[in-house]
Amino acid sequence: MKKSIITFVFLLLVMPVLSFAQTSAAKESLRGLRGVFVSVLPIAKDAETNGLSANQLQKIVESELRKAGVPILIEAKSGGEYAKLVIVIDTIKHPQGIYLFTVSVSVVQEMQISRLPGKGIFPAETYGKRALGLTTPNRMDVINEPLKEKIGEFVSDYLSVNPKR
Asked: Any bridge partners for residue 128, and if so which?
């Protein structure tokens, strides 16, 4: 019990530092993107049993992007003008039933490593936002709010370097 509290407090202290470390270069990496393919990674089985659904999260993300006018791709495309918007919801269930969760919203783009010219293209995370929280099994919907918040931050950053035409 004491170890899990220490881990939780550590994460609460580290997450804001990681968010603060987000540089303007990360936002600048969104410039020129003509669209994103939304990819929600699978949800842990116990969280899914308690009502958290990757399909539901996909709909929330796509709805927020559509409202803001961010182009959504139906299928993943390669090339410098497109990227994946990867959504990861990690949950850890404490024996007493409380869930610790993280929400990660990341942009993954194809990159070439400058020291390896001609050696191929590699996927790399160029942008990321994260949130941390607690919820109970009967309130898994609580996770939707930090997800919407981080999508909102992505939309704001995306539109700041890709103004609507």
From this structure: 106
Q: Which of 123, 127, 57, 126 is nearest to 90 (CA)?
A: 57
Beta bridge pairs of residue 122? 111
Angle between helices 54-68 and 144-161 (to 10 degrees): 30
- Report the CATH number of the 2-161 domain: 3.40.50
Q: What is the residue-averaged pLDDT of the chain?
A: 87
Distance from chain centroid for Cα 60: 13
For residue 110, pLDDT over 80 is answered with yes
pLDDT category at 19 given cuts 50, 70, 90 is: very low
- DSSP class of 113: -
Burial class (CB in 10 A: 0-12, 13-18, 19+), 151: buried
Neighbours of 47 (CB within 10 A): 21
d(CA 41, CA 35): 19
On the CB side of 68, CA atoms within 13 Å amount to 23
Domain boundaries, the chain: 2-161
The pTM (predicted TM-score) of the whole model is: 0.83
| CA dist., res. 131 & res. 70, Å (int) | 22
Residue 105 burial (CB count, 10 A): 22
